[in-house]
Amino acid sequence: MADRKTVLVTGATGAQGGSVARHLLEGNGFTIRCLTRNPNSDKAQALAAIGADVIQGDLDDRSSLDTALAGCEGVFGVTNFWEHFDREAQHGKHLIDAVADSNVSHLVLSTLPDAYDLSGQKLEVPHFDIKARLERYARGKDIGATFVHVAFYYENFLSFFPPQKQEDGSYAFGFPQGDTRLAAVAVEDVGGVVTPIFKDPAKFRGRVVGIVGDDRPPAEYAKLMSDALGKQIVYNYIPRETFATFEFPGAEDLANMFEFNRLYIPNRRADLDECRALYPAMQPFDKWVSANWARLDAVLA
User: Fold this and answer.
1) Which of 71, 77, 197, 224 is most exposed, with minimal Cβ within 10 Å?
2) Per-residue model confidence (pLDDT) at position 1
3) Can you give the pLDDT at residue 4?
4) How many CB atoms lie within 10 A of CB 85?
5) Tell me, what's the pLDDT at 18?
6) 57 by DSSP, 3-state: which?
7) How far apart are the first and last CA of the chain?
8) Where are the alpha helices (DSSP H) in the chain?
9) Which residue, 103, 110, 104, 145, is CA-closest to 127?
10) Which stretches of the chain score pLDDT less than 70?
11) Which pTM does this prediction carry?
12) What are phi and psi of 80, to 5 degrees?
């Protein structure tokens, strides 16, 4: 046990952090410490049941981070824009500063591209841009770090973008992606790529690793769902200007995200190839649909 490295996972009861914690716990030689605001929650207790050391802490509370990092050699960090919005920036800085002041030798931080900069200041995507600023902030510190850019979740078709029934009996989903390929990934596979980074940190230090499970035009995702479910599902292109007027929080942010993808990210083939090499069990979308068709069918119903 003395040879086991202790890794702190933040956001452990969420999507990315939960995936990373579970993969690291699967006989990979790590002791996993999970940071959560509520150690008594069902998700926290489920992690404890499979061997995680679950501790109370909050990215808003720097002192709790200093306590959580004691004795850790690695950290997986993820911040949540959609829960905390602009406060995400301070949460990320708290974590990065705490890592810089600790004996942690490697930080894997979940960040995203700088849409505002890469679009020539044409498109603001706050949930991208804040994470991009945190990446720059971390690079300015004297810490070993790797940055992971996680693609659109397959699970978004179960929640944020479920196909909606149309008058003709078909189903449709839409956003401003157009015909440009949309990189996507199963949340459960994120940890499969992060694990080899922690196993060989020197190889990945200073790098950005894009986590991608598939890379297709939206219409192909629709066809694969149609084939699996035996129902007609189509993708409709919705212009950015129209999508941005939808009355839900973050509509403009998401409209600009898809527009940024459409105009500036033609494909992520190199990321896809690297992920499949790092984690051969990475699921392409058709495999994920086959495993989750009942959940998708329930959403349509």
Assistant:
1) 71
2) 46
3) 85
4) 15
5) 97
6) coil
7) 49
8) 15-25, 42-49, 62-69, 81-84, 88-100, 115-118, 126-139, 190-199, 201-204, 218-229, 240-243, 251-264, 269-278, 285-300
9) 110
10) 1-2
11) 0.96
12) -120, 100
